[in-house]
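During the second half of the funding period, the structural biology subgroup turned its attention to how the target accommodates small molecules. The most pressing case was iron/sulfur cluster, which had performed well in the primary screen but for which no bound structure existed. We therefore specified the complex as follows and requested a full 3D prediction, including the ligand pose.
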Amino acid sequence: MTTPPKPPFADPAPHQRRPRLAVHKFSSCDGCQLALLNAGEGLLAVAAHFDIVHFAEAGVVDEAAEADIALVEGSISTPDERERIRAVREHSRWVIPIGACATAGGPQAHRNLAHAESWLASAYPQPEHVTALPTATAISAHVPVELELPGCPVSTAQVLTALTSLLAGASPRPEQDKVCLECKRRGQVCVLVAKGAPCLGPVTVTGCGALCPGLGRDCYGCYGPAENPEVATLARRFRDLGLDADAVARRFAYQNIGAAPFTQAVRDWRRPAVGHGDGDD
Ligand code: SF4
Ligand code: SF4
């Protein structure tokens, strides 16, 4: 659930000082924080225009600090995280989940479709010492958020654009185009048409610049489902390309398996291919 954008910094107070920026980490690999750290001159510009009050990867630690903008990496996967995200929400004017973990649960959301306890037992000799929720879920499943920036990792350019917009008093808008549009704009050869590759570009929101198709590979859906994705139709197209039902399911079972349209595709196709005959096209 994403709340309607509200005018950022609508009261004059924040303009009397530099806006405060926090970067929080939940269950994640830190890759999205690193994407921000690797922004080079962009990061220097952020440091020049914001007071960075919490960003552990950058060496600034004050998790309880009040913030105008909280970028949040990672999914909610433990009872402790469920409490922590509520505190972040209380202390922050804008909460912006960044990356597939924070917007859809990330790779760890694979456990949402499995028996979490048996997974734990297979990985740890004493699973009773592991405190984890049975699911890994997006930040928006726990607290209202103002904007979501997907991707694995998140697009540094999209983060910087959002911060710049907020700094200028404008509401940043989420990207809506599908990867296919980006592909066409760049004049790239369609790997689905030309090679019969099972490309997720028709249902995935852009943000990567159609990177994989540009390298002759099919899109893996790193940025998650676009608006109104025709997932069921694309899944049937994959079947017609020769993928068996499990292979179709696996196409949707990457970083964004926790996003509802992709979760549904996995549920529909992971079973034997009953109900996917030509008659239901
Ligand atoms: S979205 Fe990808 S890069 Fe970012 S924290 Fe999660 S797994 Fe790492
Ligand atoms: S290669 Fe993939 S993303 Fe590009 S146009 Fe074809 S289906 Fe769309």
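Two results from this model are relevant to the next phase. The beta strands are 20-25, 51-55, 67-73, 92-98. Residues 37 and 43 are 7 Å apart (CA to CA).
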